[in-house]
Amino acid sequence: MSTGTLSASLPLSTSAEETLAVNGRSFYWARHFLGEPHASRATRLYALCRHLDDLADESSSHESARHNLIGVRGAVRSGVTSDPVLRDGLDLMLECRISPEIVLELIEGLLSDLDPVRIADEAALLRYSYRVAGTVGIMMCGVLDVHDPLAYPHAMDLGIAMQLTNICRDITEDAAMNRRYLPATFIGDMEPAHLLQPAENLRPLLRHSVSRLLDMADRYYASGESGIAYLPLRARGGILVAARVYRAIGSRLLHRECDYWSERVAVGSRQKALVTASTLLRAPMSRFFWRPSYRHDSKLHEALRGMPGTITKT
After folding, report:
1. Is 118 helix (H, G, I), strand (E, B) or coil?
2. Any idea what DSSP says for residue 208?
3. Residue 10 φ then ψ, to 5°
4. Nearest CA to 162 among 132, 127, 191, 204?
5. Of 30, 43, 278, 288, which is the most exposed, with the fewest CB atoms less than 10 Å away?
6. Which residues contact 161 (CB under 8 A, 6 or more apart)?
7. For the ranges 30-39, 226-235, 261-270, which has the lowest average pLDDT?
8. Percent of the chain that is helix, strand, coil (3-state, to 5)
9. Residue 104 belongs to a domain with what CATH number?
């Protein structure tokens, strides 16, 4: 059931809650540790992002999807819409002081998915990951009442890390949609069809490429966590739980020697509980939980120069 269908039949708050529960199980788990009103706002933000994603992926054609996303872009710029989910998103932007330019970057990332996707190199992959997920990290800062610009690069990096994990997990699903996010600098100009059930001679290269992306993700997870102390105290545990549950997807992939094609990797309830308990017990004993890193590694953003919220060397 799409977000739009839910919106037509349920109160908006119920719609957002169900959207998160059905489509974002890791975040639904973690939201319980945020506390109100942050959990409610985070649920509304997820509903907005999911709605935009569905406009891109579930429209009847690419032309229809492009038309819908361009319409959303106009609504974000004007602040006017009749779409109830988008209207709530625009209200959330005002409530949380989320800059429209951040949401517009997200829309540009979704629009890029409507063309055949063939990522050229790591820089292109990072720019894409910034647009579709790093922007969400910045928006989460607003949701959590964090408006210190020094926090934004770390929030972006956490979003980028999660997106890289997503890409490694969903290679088969993306390939079925004519999308190849594994960079050509890793695997050459391989077509998505070859990623679905790869030939035996291709598997070592693909395993190594997935491992490289997960190593990259780890660097961005580390940067994201180093800024966790910018968040309100109650929210720190919840965001860390979300990050580490997501990071566990990559750990399971590595445990399976990066075999993404046999079945889709998931983190079960038992493992989520173990990750949650470990995070909530150990994180408060760490320095980074109480004192933020005031120095961001600018090398992580060299490919993102000039994008909103980034820090790069001049």
Report:
1. strand
2. H
3. -130, 155
4. 132
5. 278
6. 217, 218, 219, 220, 221, 223, 224, 243, 246, 247
7. 30-39
8. 70, 0, 25
9. 1.10.600.10
Per the CB < 8 A criterion, the answer to whether 236 and 287 are in contact is no
Count of domains forming the chain:
1
In a 3-state reduction of DSSP, which class is residue 309?
coil
Residue 269 falls inside a structural domain: yes
Q: What is the Cα–Cα distance from 282 to 202, expressed in whole angstroms? A: 41
Query: Which pairs count as long-range contacts for 265-273, CB under 8 Å and 24+ apart, including other chains?
Result: 265/169, 267/26, 272/26, 272/29, 272/245, 272/248
The candidate with the shortest Cα–Cα distance to 205, out of 224, 185, 221, 222, is 185
Q: How does 22-52 read in b/e, with b if 16+ C-beta sit within 10 Å?
A: ebbebbbbbbebbeeebbbbbbbbbbbbbbb
Alpha carbon distance 93, 171 (integer Å): 32
- Using 50, 70 and 90 to split pLDDT, how confident is the model at 30? low
Domain residues for the domain of 85 are 11-304
Is residue 239 domain-resident? Answer: yes
Contact 116, 178 (CB under 8 A): yes
Contact in structure between 273 and 191 (CB atoms under 8 Å): no
For residues 294, 299, 305, 310, the Cα torsion angle rounded to the nearest 10 degrees is: -20
113 alpha-carbon distance from chain centroid: 15
- Calpha distance 102→90 (Å, rounded): 12
Q: Judge whether 3 lies within some domain.
A: no
- Residue 314 located in a structural domain: no
- Looking up tokens 């710029």 gives 77
